[in-house]
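Please describe our next protein:
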Amino acid sequence: MSHRIAFLGLGNMGEAMAANLLKAGHSLTVYNRTASKAAGLQAQGATVAATPTEAVQNADFVFTMVTDDAALESLCTGPEGFLPAMKPGAVHASCSTVAPDTNRRLAEAHAQHGTFLVSTPVFGKPDVAAAGKLWLAAAGPASARQQLLPLLEAVGQGTYEFGDDPGAASTVKLCGNFMLGAAIEAMAEAFTLAQKSGLDRQQVYEFFTNTLFNIPIYKNYGKLVADRRYEPVGAAPAIIRKDLRLVLDESRTYVAPMPFANIIHDNLSISVAKGEQNDWAGFAERAAENAGL
């Protein structure tokens, strides 16, 4: 069944997701602050809106994929936010990585307007998004989730539901990004120890990723760490540093100490301070640098 969809936020992830919704046969209207980023989708048949309000006014579903909490709140409920223009009963799929309370606040604003928010953060790099193979978490009102699930099949290989609390899926996303960071830090330290003891980093990587850690995360990020070459860029260090800050905020709120999260955040802070432009996994270089490599 074809639906009228608005997609706001056309970075590398958003553009790929929007393209897959278009390929699935939906009527798509897109908006991006830098309008030139919509040219590729326009060539594929999407309508380009001049404002967020224009983008959503006829949409059954609104997808957002923006950088941070401030951008999402401004886009949704700011002075030129789209929420007042959404038609009653429409569903907002909030795909950005934001604080759980941000999606909870926005969900309350939606409820007052007669619309719905379902938090639907995604896991995967831009190439995974382009292939329609993202993993998604979803949380929000049950009826809205059920309406949204068939659309998510166009962008991902599976969606896991986490109940009615719209902040729940955001917590899952933060936990996941922390676990990715912890895996990268573990490999960085292990491969550095191996190299300093005279072993070949590549050989150690190949052994572990074909035996004990034969899973995509260790294979894909492990390759970057083993090669010490952090390209192509899936996400910039500043973006994931923001995510780790949100992780630490949640850990303090719930009095759940996360010492490893502090280490990852600090290493990403060094990447940002040094102006590194490679993939966020490049914080693995801290282990090598500290060991004199």
In short: Strands lie at 4-8, 27-31, 47-48, 61-64, 91-94, 116-119, 122-123, 134-138, 156-161. The longest strand covers residues 156-161.
